[in-house]
């Protein structure tokens, strides 16, 4: 989708600090970090919201990529959070699904 910010990042047309990519997923640092470690894991396939997702394996890959990278970067043992915002009430601002992975500090609960 040429008008999608994250599709453009995957295509290399908008720069991003890439951490990892494979055939299915792409991971990069969030431009506005909310924790000492904050990256996003997105599918290469354009899916606007979690409500449109149907591929369980692909959604699983997002989660397992987050945990793999948290381990590699070194904050997994201390703990972290993965979250996907959906639509307006969920706080979604970019309509290409993305799993946030945040770590490096204690995170409060419940979220705002
Ligand atoms: P949402 O609010 O949709 O759950 O999360 C969107 C995230 O994308 C936000 O945390 C925001 O900081 C991040 N973001 C928005 N634009 C860009 C960008 O151009 N590059 C990167 N790396 N992150 C972005
Ligand atoms: Zn997209």
Task: Please give the structural blueprint.
Elements: H1 5-10, E1 18-21, E2 25-29, E3 37-43, H2 56-73, E4 80-83, H3 87-90, E5 99-103
Antiparallel strand pairs: 1-2, 2-3, 3-5, 4-5
The structure holds guanosine-5'-monophosphate and zinc ion.
Could you characterize what this model shows?
The chain has 112 residues and is an alpha+beta fold. The chain has a single domain, classed as HIT-like (HIT family, subunit A, 2-Layer Sandwich). It has three helices and five strands, in the order H-E-E-E-H-E-H-E. It has a five-stranded antiparallel beta sheet with strand order 1-2-3-5-4, with helices on one face. A hairpin with a 7-residue loop joins strand 2 and strand 3 (37-43). Guanosine-5'-monophosphate binds at residues 5, 16, 28-32, 85, 91-94. The site of zinc ion has 6 residues, from helix 1.
């Amino acid at each position: 989708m040429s008008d999608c910010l994250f599709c453009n990042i995957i295509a290399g047309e908008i720069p991003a600090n890439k951490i990892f990519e494979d055939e299915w997923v792409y991971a990069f640092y969030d431009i506005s970090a909310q924790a000492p470690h904050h990256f996003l894991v997105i599918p290469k396939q354009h899916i606007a919201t979690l409500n449109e997702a149907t591929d369980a394996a692909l959604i699983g890959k997002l989660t397992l990529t987050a945990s793999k990278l948290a381990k590699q970067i070194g904050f997994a043992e201390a703990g972290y959070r993965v979250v996907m915002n959906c639509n307006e009430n969920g706080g979604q601002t970019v309509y290409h699904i993305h799993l946030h992975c945040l770590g490096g500090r204690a995170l409060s609960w419940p979220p705002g």
